[in-house]
Amino acid sequence: MTEPLAVSAQTDTSSDSTRDQVLQLLVRMRTFIALILVVVFFSVMAPNFVALDNAVIICRHVAVYALIAIGMTFVIVTGGIDLSVGSIVGLSGMVAGFLITHGIRVEFLKLTIYPSVPVVLGLSILVGVGIGALNGLLVARLNVAPFIATLGTMFIARGAAMLLSGGETFPNLVGRPGHGNEGYPILGSGTVLRIPLSILLLVLVALVAAYLATRTPLGRQIYAVGGNERAAALSGVYVGRVKIVVFVISGGLSALAGLIVSSQLVASHPAAGDTFEMNAIAAAVLGGTSLAGGRGTIGGTIVGAFVIGVLSDGLVMMGVSQFWQMVIKGVVIIAAVVLDQMQRKMTRRA
Questions:
Q1: How confident is the model at residue 338 (pLDDT cuts 50, 70, 90)?
Q2: What is this structure's pTM?
């Protein structure tokens, strides 16, 4: 009499196991599923959404979000957060605009130097790297919580961007032939084999970042710090150094994104990049990066950035109010965090 009961119990266990496996697969594939759903939805609801020209525009927007999100992924994997990335976007563009418009004044020589575009780009990215290094030092050396440290530098960077122009915009950043600083708009509007340069830069950065994360000792150390900081330190990992490096990467990539935005607009505005940190966090978490640290992939973050980019552009094409766009993005962020918690619980049970 007990044999049928045993068979029934085995069947129920097998059914529960299969259901859990399917649920785990759906949670892991959530980003791809979300991307497919938003593309299908806007293809039906928004006219010309799937047109080639519109797809290129969306990819250019995604390139900006994704560059910032890649740096954010490294920071979150170590268990941190970087709220300063949006302000770095604005500051880097303002630095470039200031250098192109006003140059560098050398008082004792009574001379104004106008750097070439490559030098302008390099100096602007160095500003982002410097703020990233400051974030890393505050977190790693002074033990300031990442949220507080980057909240402070967020205000510092935004204030510095305002101070550079008194809150005004640097317009018409095409340079002057006599100054030798022409060509800045190429970064945002240039193409190679008809592919926008910003998209090619994203592909290059993504490949380098993926290689760094999966094929180098530094990548393994980043995941080790996020997985168990104490264990990583005991195994010989320089935890502080790793944290500084990831914040430097985040700052540098945010500065590059800011230069692309400024170049596309051929102008620099101190408020550029406002709320970009939320898009970056959302893209990383949607892509499977755990806010608890220790888990995340560059590929997943790229897909997450596409979800955010498609969602943003699709809502604009449908004529949805900017206020509702903010509400919808907030819901997406909350949903991403909830799904991340579900995945962590499933992983522990397994």
A1: confident
A2: 0.90
CA 239 – CA 221 distance, rounded (Å): 8
- Cα separation of 318 and 32, whole Å? 22
Angle among Cα 310, 312, 317 to the nearest 5 degrees reads 90
CA dist 180 and 105 (Å) reads 16
The residue type found at 292 is A
Q: What is the dihedral of CA 18, 28, 30, 61, to 10 degrees?
A: -160
Q: Are 294 and 226 in contact (CB under 8 A)?
A: yes
- pLDDT digits over 255-314, tens only? 999 999 999 999 999 999 998 998 999 899 888 898 888 889 999 999 999 999 998 888
Question: Residue 275 class from Cβ within 10 Å (0-12 exposed, 13-18 middle, 19+ buried)?
Answer: exposed
| Beta strands 191-192; 111-113: pairing state | unpaired
| Residue 196 parent element (H or E) | strand 195-196
Both tokens assigned to 278 = 């939320």
pLDDT digits (tens, 9 = 90+) for 94-153: 999 999 999 998 888 788 899 999 999 999 999 999 999 999 999 999 999 999 999 999
* Euclidean distance between CA atoms 155 and 332, whole angstroms: 26
Distance of CA 57 to the CA centre of its chain: 18
Give CA–CA dist 339/80, Å, rounded. 19
Strands (E) in 25-154, as ranges, are 104-106, 111-113
pLDDT digits (tens, 9 = 90+) for 232-261: 999 999 999 999 999 999 999 999 999 999
Question: Are the beta carbons of 89 and 229 closer than 8 angstroms?
Answer: no
**Do 86 and 277 contact (CB within 8 A), yes or no?**
yes
| C-beta separation of 221 from 242 below 8 A | yes
Amino acid at 306: F
